[in-house]
Structure to design on (130 residues):
């Protein structure tokens, strides 16, 4: 049923069935990622929660105060962008699908998009477009 070939958990290269990684280098990279994640996960989750909540509050506040809503929301977006760039921890399902190297890369792209979105909202607000 399952005709998928086994792939390196880090880079996604095809490997033989008795292995998890294609090379020592990939194993080292993956281990350092998992160690870094284990060390920083709780702090990251707390900050992530605060600023995601911050975006929710900003959207809510926007209907009363456009300034606080727009500026607050864009600052939260920029901070989340930086946060995901320093702590690029993809969801397990993404790691499973894209393998670690690519999943981290995608997470960093999402981080840049969030940061750019924050800058754009701030800019649009000061230009009086929103
Ligand atoms: Zn590999």
């Amino acid at each position: 049923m399952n005709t998928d070939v086994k792939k390196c958990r880090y880079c996604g290269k095809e490997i033989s069935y008795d292995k998890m990684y294609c090379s020592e280098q990939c194993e080292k990279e993956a281990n350092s990622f998992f160690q870094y994640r284990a060390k920083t996960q709780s702090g990251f989750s707390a900050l992530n929660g605060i600023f995601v909540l911050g975006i929710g509050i900003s959207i809510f506040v926007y209907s009363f105060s456009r300034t606080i809503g727009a500026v607050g929301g864009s600052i939260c977006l920029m901070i989340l962008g930086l946060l995901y760039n320093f702590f690029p921890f993809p969801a397990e399902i993404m790691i499973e699908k894209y393998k670690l190297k690519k999943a981290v890369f995608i997470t960093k792209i999402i981080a840049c998009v969030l940061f750019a979105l924050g800058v754009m909202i701030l800019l649009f607000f000061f230009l009086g477009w929103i």
